[in-house]
Amino acid sequence: MAATGGERRKRRRTRSNKNKEEIENQRMTHIAVERNRRKQMNEYLAVLRSLMPPCYSQRGDQASIVGGAINYLKELQHQLQSMEPPVKITATEDTGATAASAGDQNNTISASSSGPFSDFFAFPQYSSRPSSSSVAEGTAEIEVTMVESHASVKILAKKRPKQLLKLVASIQSLRLTLLHLNVTTHDDSVLYSISLKVEEGSQLNTVEDIAAAVNQILMRIEEESPLS
């Protein structure tokens, strides 16, 4: 009986030690997850802060950076609206002239459908409304040019929640270093002008590779966005 009792105590100690190990493992896992979450959040905030003039984010806490970003975007939108010329619509009573120039009017509407950004895209790799067989259909207007290891990316997309942060984080995960970023908004559209450096080890070495990757990122952001 004594031997049996000793075995029971040994089993209890073993079971107790396993429970302690499981609890400790769970605690360490929770700490690691929380640490990674905070690290990722700090990285996002650092990127967001780098995109603004210092006067908009004088303090480094989350509320100040996010608030400064909102104010900065509002200021950019106000400046854009102040630069836009007033739109004039001229009506004509000459139905014959109207019918004769119907094709010209349609071409004008199509050419100006992108509003103030229509002249920004000379040879896009992707378009939401491709006009030729050389342009692939995508979720946004995307044009990439490259000089050696430096790439210039222009994106005209529909504004979506947290799109900028997701776009920047996804681009950097592809071993593309963001050198400069300019954001311009108009109504429900946003134009991103991005300067990138392709790092060693990146799988994206051509304009087609980068454009395709950006299109995939924007498609994923669109899928993750709530239905409008």
UniProtKB/TrEMBL annotation:
Transmembrane segments: none annotated. Coiled coil: none annotated. One of its GO terms (biological process) is regulation of transcription by RNA polymerase II. The keyword Transcription regulation applies. It comes from the Eukaryota. CDD domains: bHLH_AtFAMA_like. Residues 1-25 are annotated as: Disordered. It is found in: Nucleus. Residues 25-76 form the BHLH domain. One of its GO terms (cellular component) is nucleus. Pfam families: bHLH-TF_ACT-like_plant (PF22754), HLH (PF00010). Keywords: DNA-binding, Nucleus, Transcription, Transcription regulation. GO terms for molecular function: DNA-binding transcription factor activity, RNA polymerase II-specific; protein dimerization activity; RNA polymerase II cis-regulatory region sequence-specific DNA binding. This is BnaCnng08490D protein. The lineage of its organism: Eukaryota, Viridiplantae, Streptophyta, Embryophyta, Tracheophyta. The gene is BnaCnng08490D.
